[in-house]
User: Fold this.
Amino acid sequence: MTVPVSPVDPTPDPLAPRLVDEAECVASVLLAILLAHVIGATHVSWAAFTGYMVMRGHPLETLRRSLLRIIGTAAGALACLAVLESPLGTSMPVLALAMALAGTISLYGAITARHAYAWLFMGLTFAMMLYDRVALPLADPRAFAVMRMIETLAGTAACMAVSLASAWTLRRRWPAIRAPKPQGWAGVPMRCCTARAAGWRWRCCWAWRRSGICPRWFPARSPSWRSCSSR
Assistant:
């Protein structure tokens, strides 16, 4: 009489893909830091932050997120340079209104648009450059914009290198777990918070107005800007 042998459970370890995710993030951040030091970046932490935030389990998802990050950063830097280099670039009311407008538009796009990641970093880069000018009125904003792009490129390059290397090695054994498709604002299906009038989502509008209005008061509270602009 033969004893039946139970087959080996083919189910892989559910924790293995998550461990690979963590290993990819660690490798990406370390490589981003190395690249930032090699190219002489000023804020190495921004390259490391990019290397962490852009990393995804699939190379195509990592590439898409890298492109959105680069496009959003470049758009925010160019928009802020257009404001700061204009004849009204030293006017506090103009800067406050520009911050309110940029914050409102970018957050509206970050919550509702298909390419939300690019909209988010457009507004974030705009705000960082404007506040840097407020804190250091004599600093060159063009140098800040160029360095921010260099740091972003270092982080995204590190992500792509690690993602491709992992796809050819670890991901063959432990494929990534795809995240579910986003449902909309705050996890609610977009149709539930949409009042369609020329495509505008009116029921979500108040949150975006507050998000744009609040940052506009930060520049005016800077003692360094008031002391400089009063000279």
